[in-house]
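Whether sequence alone determines local backbone shape is best considered at the level of individual chains. In the encoding step, the backbone of a single protein was reduced to a row of integers, each denoting a local shape. For completeness, the protein is quoted in full, as a sequence line and a line of structure tokens.
***
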Amino acid sequence: MAYFPNGSAGEVFENQCAQCRYGDEPCPIYLAQYEHNYAACNNEVASKILDTLIKNDGTCAMFALDPPWFDKESGPANDAERAYLELGPSVPANIRELVLKVAGRIA
């Protein structure tokens, strides 16, 4: 979104960034929004780009694609854990344990 129409949309964006696994440091979407949002209001191409990344209600398009992956509290710790989650219950218990150890979820 090139320019948040109200404070609540900006608040939604800030809250979602705080939940995101990449929210400890500004990600490229966050930086684009905050560095170029005002200037983009009068630039059709820039507005379309930001509109693609940030929805009118303040939600991040990337976070919305796969909330369990992007959520830093419940998302997978790394790509190994994500691969395990995508394989589902057919993964043998010993493989599950190995992946969770690599991911740092168990000792």
Q: What stands out?
A: The chain has a mean pLDDT of 77. The chain has two domains: 1-66, 76-107.
